């Protein structure tokens, strides 16, 4: 193979679309949409799965989202201690509230109140979907210092990785694969990559193509897997019970 051969234009353009190119940063909109989806899913839960007045937590979460949008309205290129604290607090708030709702769902599905379980089965889907979103956001916020640091800092300055993606080890693969690797194209994961990790972890109950490296990443993936497994087992058991009647 001729190592001096010029890289095709379409590959050059693909690299320029990556968030680290010229330190453009990730777009803000996907994270906003994911957060709003989690808020709306919470608002739609049945009353018995809420541990506070329905609009209190969503209002607080929306309030926390406002300064994050103000600091980085289009692309995520700026960060300070305040914005970092607010973003982590927002994810933690959504995550904790969803786990509490899961606990209330478990209680409801194993009591006499669950005899008419249609709404609760739908609520279980809402809790499961919210879990995918919030754990995806948590992975996105924590890995390699967060979305701003991942695109704005030099490679040598990035914190240790919490996850190992396939792109991180593809530099010795065939040319069309290696050109998209982290080493060749300066690739870093975006929100969609972390949401995919969350989906696979929530459905397979284990890592698939992306491996957790740090203790906190393993702990978060374990919590998500257990929560998804509990939800799935309860829904299946309840559905079987309803069909047997």
TrEMBL record:
Keywords: Membrane, Transmembrane, Transmembrane helix
Keyword Transmembrane helix: yes
Superkingdom in the source lineage: Bacteria
Residue span of region Disordered: 1-21
Regions that span the bilayer: 27-45, 51-73, 85-108, 120-140, 219-243
UniProt-recorded name of the protein: DUF1345 domain-containing protein
Species name: Streptomyces polychromogenes
